[in-house]
Design brief:
By secondary structure, the chain is of the alpha+beta class. It has nine helices and nine strands. The strands form three sheets. A five-stranded antiparallel beta sheet has the order 1-2-3-5-4, with helices on one face. A two-stranded antiparallel ribbon has the order 6-9. β2 (37-43) and β3 form a beta hairpin. Adenosine-5'-triphosphate (ATP) is lined by residues 2, 30, 32-36, 38, 49, 79, 101, 103-104, 194, 197, 205, 207-208, 210. Pathway: Amino-acid biosynthesis; L-threonine biosynthesis; L-threonine from L-aspartate: step 4/5.
Length: 315
Amino acid sequence: MAVFTPLDDAQVADFLTRYAVGDFAALKGVPQGTENSTFFVTTDQGEWVLTLFEQGEFEDLPFFVDLLDYLDAQGLPVPGPVHDRQGVALQRLAGRPALLFPRMPGSHPSAPNLAQCAALGDALGRMHQVSQRFTGQRDNPRNLAWLRRRHREVLPHLESSDQALMREEIAAYATAFADADLPRGAIHGDLFRDNTLYDGDRLGGIIDFYNGCTGELLFDLAIVINDWTSDATGEIDRARYDAILSAYLAHRPLSDAERALWPLMLRMTALRYWLSRLLVIHVDPPAHDITPHDPARFRTLLTRRLEGEVPPLPA
Ligand SMILES: Nc1ncnc2c1ncn2[C@@H]1O[C@H](COP(=O)(O)OP(=O)(O)OP(=O)(O)O)[C@@H](O)[C@H]1O
Ligand SMILES: N[C@@H](CCO)C(=O)O
């Protein structure tokens, strides 16, 4: 479920009068999502998405609004927040911070085809090209410092071989990334398939920017490759890998340092999700009754990246 704060028609009809989006016609709670309350709203002028923020760092919401405004203005397929008649995007409704977005077309691709992969690589490459000039600032909340700090909390819940794996990996990242000077900019931070919408082969939208931050661009790309190209055994699907990366590199060639650290970044972002999913299960269980994601999936990806050669990056 993803309606933690219910709304009724009258509340939403009244809320919409703040905006120039037409008259209220219908309201529907969205079942997907785990963190915020999401509603589809229909007016006589179109389809909208209303999000009530239930948890997280509310003080970061202005960063997310500015980032989405910026990317939308640059022509990226993201839902630019709707601003009210006074020009304000961030509102309150039912005691929660609230944002209204245009509803983007399409559905999440579970088994993306090569055209869909290329569309994603193209959009991410364009995004990273312009996001280096975005002036907002929010440190990556899932960076190496976070891994080093929080992995200790899950160690008591792991078998000794997994404890050793996690410790050795984090030590290796600390050494390798210590003096690395990788290109930085605004990143999505969680660009899984279920944060995209496709209308056929067309990328209708990239959504859920609430892990958005400023950090190493390669971190974003590695999250994408791990989620979009790995099979159940963690093996990389070479055709999807090439399709995403070729389209991406056409907009933003990687530096020598990025190429050198690519295999390690794939491992570090796999461990990032292994750890965040373990934390949800063992340390910070969600306030709501939600089935947690499986941490073992990312342990599998990590060990696979350690065992096998990562395919070469396209030139
Ligand atoms: N702008 C949009 N256009 C179309 N659908 C959207 C839009 N924003 C959200 N949705 C739909 O609402 C669902 C939940 O949204 P979102 O992913 O932002 O929620 P969440 O609670 O932050 O979830 P999670 O963090 O678990 O992914 C999405 O999976 C998608 O189906
Ligand atoms: N994409 C995350 C969940 C949302 O942050 C995961 O798969 O663990």
